[in-house]
Amino acid sequence: MFVNFNGDWPPPPEPPSRPAAPRLDKKAEARFTWAIAVNLLLLLLMPLAGATLFDALFALLR
What are φ and ψ of residue 6, in 5° steps? Predict the structure, then answer.
């Protein structure tokens, strides 16, 4: 039979539970949704705008 001599008894007490995260109200949820929508729109549009700016810059340097 195995005997544990590490001195781990008694076990440590359970850590206290974390409080629940606060919920967003309707106004904050709307702002959060708009921020995500704007970021997704910019994610789609900015590569095109960046390519246009690079083309213009290369045309000026040529």
Answer: -75, -15
Q: The domain containing residue 30 runs over which residues?
A: 25-62
Total domain count, the chain: 1
In terms of Cβ atoms closer than 10 Å to its own Cβ (0-12, 13-18, 19+), residue 11 is: exposed
Apex CA 33: angle with CA 52 and CA 29, to 5°?
155
- The tens digit of pLDDT for each residue in 4-56 reads 677 666 777 888 898 888 898 999 999 999 999 999 998 888 887 778 888 88
Is residue 8 included in any domain, yes or no? no
Pair 24, 32: CB distance under 8 Å: yes
